[in-house]
Amino acid sequence: MNNMKSLFSSMIILLFIGFSAQAQNSVNVTGTWVMEVKTDAGSGSPTFVLKQDGEKITGTYTGQLGDSQVTGTIKGKVIHLEFSIQGNRITYDGTATSTDMEGKVDLAEMASGTFTGKKKP
User: Where is the signal peptide (predicted)?
Assistant: First the structure.
C-alpha cells in the first residue's frame, strides 16, 4: 500500500511541475508591436513584428533608426530583444505579457531610456 501512495504522490508532483512549467511559458509575444521609446537623445514609435518559438524570438524592427532583423528571448515574463543598425547594437530588456511590454532600451551605449509597447489586436 505504501508503494501505491508513493507512486500517487510522485504522479501528483510531476503533474504540478508540468503545469508550473507551462504557466511560465504562457506569455506569447508573436505579433505586431508598436513601441513608445523615450531616450535622452529623443523619442520614437518603432514597430516590431515578432515570432516566438518557445523561448526564442525572431522578427523585424522598423523605425527612425531604419530596418533590421531582430533576435531575442523570453523566459517567463522577462524579455530581451536585440538588433543592429549600421553596426550599432540596440537592446530592449524588460517584461512582457501577451499584450503589453515595458523596460529599458540601450542605443549602442550612445543613448538609453525606456520603452512601453502594445501588441496590435
Answer: 1-23
Q: How far is CA 53 from the centre of its chain?
A: 11
Task: Tell me which amino acid residue 23 is.
Answer: A
- Of 59, 3, 60, 50, which Cα lies nearest the Cα of 28? 50
What is the CATH superfamily name and number for domain 28-119? Quinohemoprotein amine dehydrogenase alpha subunit, domain 2 (2.40.128.120)
Give the torsion through C-alpha atoms of 85, 88, 89, 92, to 10 deg: -70
Side-chain-side CA neighbours of 105 within 13 Å: the count stands at 23
Angle at 38 between CA 50 and CA 64, to 5 degrees: 60
Q: How confident is the model at residue 114 (pLDDT cuts 50, 70, 90)?
A: very high
- Strand ranges inside 1-121, DSSP E: 31-39, 42-44, 47-53, 56-63, 66-75, 78-85, 88-96, 100-107, 111-119
**Residue whose C-alpha cell is 508513493:** 6
